[in-house]
Amino acid sequence: MKKLSILGATGSIGMQTLDVLRKSPGEFELLGVTANSSVEKMKDIITEFNPKYLAMMNTESAKEIECFCREKQFNIKVYSGMAGLIKIATLEEINIALIAVVGMIGLKPTMAAIEANKDIALANKETLVVAGEIVMKRACEKGVKILPVDSEHSAIFQALQGNDIKSLKKIILTASGGPFRGKSAKELENISVDEALNHPNWSMGNKITIDSATLMNKGLEVIEAHFLFNCDYDNIQVLVHPESIIHSMVEYKDSSIIAQLGSADMRLPIQYALNYTCRKNEIAKSIDFYEISQLNFEKPNTDVFRCLKLAFKAGTRGGVMPAIMNAANEVAVDLFLNKKIQFLEISHIIEDAMVNFEEHMNTELTIDNVINIDNKVREYVLNKNS
Ligand code: NDP
Ligand code: MG
């Protein structure tokens, strides 16, 4: 039986991971879970899964959960804060940690889990964006597996199985195009938060849903793919594919292409990462090709969706630039969700931060420096926009 922890258990990926566990009786033992402040969801998780360890980032929420456990006589050790997240990511008993917190907050627990020799099922793309070079190098040195959960990267990972990565010519990263595919910049001027949260194919957490609407999600995924598969940016092509059936493709040196297809259901890549290398349980719906009848492809419009262009720029620039871009994006998305800025301002804020922090490009790439610059960029963006 595999023993695991889920960081971000109350989120979209976390809850879908719980469903994978539900549908795999006797295969997994859930030992640790974390959340930020979703107390009610955490109570439900405790009642159903009775994990041994738990952490709430928010201290007050941790206290509430502790009271609940005492009252209902659950024998669970409750931690809080970043130290708590790290504790759950590094539990001695676990084999694998599924990291599904949102944002670069996942970086420290991911690094700690690698140091503790735990395999990682990684949904938290921001961690790879801000420090992919350090994360992948350390995982390699420690012999720890980084198993992608992001559907595109899982698709690439699957398409690479049994092939020599040296014969990889190109990664074709598919994108649904989000809710505003085909729109002009003018049409995007006054769009509302609700419109941006209305993704056509996927149901996800708010932050990634806004990232999908700006195409920053694809930008983050380009950088994620660069680090996961050691692929030059010139050899990563983004392809808009509105049906979200082909989750990504790999082209080999002989120009042969291998794609992974499936319904738009995150439980598929989650289950693959947790069970790697075997395929089990019919978790998602089969695709009916008669019903779909056609698949479409387009070039992304990076003049309108400027975040994608900025991400290629940040990735190619390397060093701490992806961390600068990511911090500005995290703050800008939050400001947009709180109706403090317009949709199109997101890309302007990111670009401004990338220009302003260019002088920090000599910063040595270490975890501490990445966290330091992340804090500085957040402060800068917040000061300028509130
Ligand atoms: P959600 O917003 O739905 O969930 C985020 C989880 O992280 C929740 O458990 C939340 O706890 C916790 N969390 C939020 N902020 C903090 C914090 N400051 N400290 C500790 N924990 C925190 O996000 P998603 O599940 O949508 O996404 C998670 C990650 O997976 C992201 O990096 C995203 O890009 C990636 N991903 C998501 C996909 C999806 O389909 N959703 C697809 C591919 C990748 P609480 O509930 O208490 O707030
Ligand atoms: Mg994805």
From TrEMBL:
Domain 1-deoxy-D-xylulose 5-phosphate reductoisomerase N-terminal, chain residue ranges per copy: 4-132
Q: Which residues form the DXP reductoisomerase C-terminal domain?
A: 261-380
Q: Which residue windows are transmembrane per the record?
A: none
Q: List residues of the 1-deoxy-D-xylulose 5-phosphate reductoisomerase C-terminal domain.
A: 146-229
> Looking at the keywords, is NADP present?
yes
Q: Which top-level enzyme class is recorded in the Swiss-Prot or TrEMBL entry?
A: oxidoreductase
Does Metal-binding count among this protein's keywords? yes
- Family matches, as NCBIfam families: Dxr (TIGR00243), PRK12464.1 (NF009114)
User: Which family does this protein fall into?
Assistant: Belongs to the DXR family.
- Output the PANTHER family linked to this UniProt entry: 1-DEOXY-D-XYLULOSE 5-PHOSPHATE REDUCTOISOMERASE (PTHR30525), 1-DEOXY-D-XYLULOSE 5-PHOSPHATE REDUCTOISOMERASE, CHLOROPLASTIC (PTHR30525:SF0)
Could you tell me what this protein does? Catalyzes the NADPH-dependent rearrangement and reduction of 1-deoxy-D-xylulose-5-phosphate (DXP) to 2-C-methyl-D-erythritol 4-phosphate (MEP).
Name of the protein described by the UniProt record? 1-deoxy-D-xylulose 5-phosphate reductoisomerase
In its UniProt entry, the species of origin is given as Clostridium vincentii
Its lineage reads:
Bacteria, Bacillati, Bacillota, Clostridia, Eubacteriales
